């Protein structure tokens, strides 16, 4: 069997998982909203694109690529177990921080933080939200959530597939440096898919009439969410390749540090736009200037990540043997 064929070989259990899990997910989502269930398959478009890219790469350079079977299980484990553990860790730490920071006002803060819309609120309630959003406690919590719970926890979760690839690489006679990228993207796109499904379900569950807002939400997650997560994971995986194969060696903290900081900055840019409109937590801005500011700031950070990925790739390309 050729190396390319061996890479593409999958077990019956992996095939069943790929076939059944999206169907089961769609059924579960459908209990909450049939509209969300109808849009859910589109959340897998980035994953389908990754698979298409992997197939092409596996045909031309199979000795350096990751095998499909462990990529599938990495995708599923990160998407199901990883995101569940991530959510519990994020909410648990944030609960402690809110309790310590807000004191007796913690319950009121949580009510406003979890509120997805301000429709139907009285002027007095909106004024109170503005007071909470303007407080130094909220700004500190926003900073910690962006850089620790979002940037730190999520980038650490996305690093685990790279760590797994680094361990697997020790088994091979010939190094598989590009497998780091394959595993990193499998983990990142798994997280992207789960987030996308969650946002679609949440939007459709809010009794919004029509298809415009759910489709806009889907497009936002497919474009903004995918770009952010994928580029950050590419940066981490390329830095891991440089550390392991070309030097100088780096600790895992140094490997993921740029992605953590840039991820946190992107999140901070989003929450600042919400806070400037008097919101506590995530509520999509409605004023044009806030919308432009939100996406302008976010894509500036994403562009910076893209530039760092390009520079890292150029550096590695100078050291990689010619194919």
From TrEMBL:
UniProt KW keywords: Membrane, Transmembrane, Transmembrane helix
Keyword S-adenosyl-L-methionine: no
Native organism: Malassezia equina
Protein name: PrsW family intramembrane metalloprotease
GO function terms (MF aspect): peptidase activity
Matching InterPro entries: PrsW
Transmembrane portions of the chain: 12-31, 37-54, 75-97, 136-157, 178-201, 221-240, 252-272, 292-310
Pfam families per record: PrsW-protease (PF13367)
């Amino acid at each position: 069997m050729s190396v390319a064929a061996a890479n593409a070989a999958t077990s019956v259990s992996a095939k069943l998982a790929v076939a059944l899990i999206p169907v089961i997910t769609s059924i579960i989502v459908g209990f909450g909203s049939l509209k969300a269930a109808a849009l859910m398959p589109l959340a897998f478009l980035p994953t389908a694109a990754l698979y298409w890219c992997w197939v092409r790469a596996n045909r031309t350079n199979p000795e350096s690529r990751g095998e499909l079977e462990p990529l599938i299980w990495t995708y599923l484990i990160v998407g199901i177990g990883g995101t569940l553990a991530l959510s519990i860790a994020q909410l648990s730490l944030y609960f402690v921080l809110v309790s310590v920071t807000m004191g007796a006002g913690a319950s009121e803060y949580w009510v406003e933080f979890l509120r997805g819309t301000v429709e139907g609120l009285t002027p007095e309630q909106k004024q109170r939200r503005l007071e909470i959003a303007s407080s130094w406690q909220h700004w500190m919590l926003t900073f910690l959530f962006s850089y620790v719970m979002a940037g730190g926890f999520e980038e650490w979760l996305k690093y685990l597939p790279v760590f797994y690839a680094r361990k697997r690489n020790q088994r091979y006679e010939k190094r598989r440096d590009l497998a780091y990228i394959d595993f990193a993207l499998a983990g990142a796109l798994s997280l992207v898919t789960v987030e996308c499904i969650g946002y679609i379900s949440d939007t459709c569950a809010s009794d919004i009439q029509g298809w415009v807002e759910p489709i806009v939400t889907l497009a936002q997650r497919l474009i903004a969410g995918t770009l952010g997560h994928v580029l950050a994971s590419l940066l981490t995986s390329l830095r891991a390749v440089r550390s392991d194969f070309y030097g100088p060696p780096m600790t895992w903290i140094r490997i993921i540090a740029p992605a953590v900081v840039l991820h946190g900055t992107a999140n901070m840019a989003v929450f600042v736009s919400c806070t400037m409109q008097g919101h506590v937590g995530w509520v999509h801005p409605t004023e044009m200037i806030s919308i432009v500011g939100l996406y302008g700031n976010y894509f500036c950070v994403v562009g910076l990540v893209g530039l760092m990925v390009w520079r890292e790739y150029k550096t590695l390309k100078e050291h990689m043997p010619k194919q």
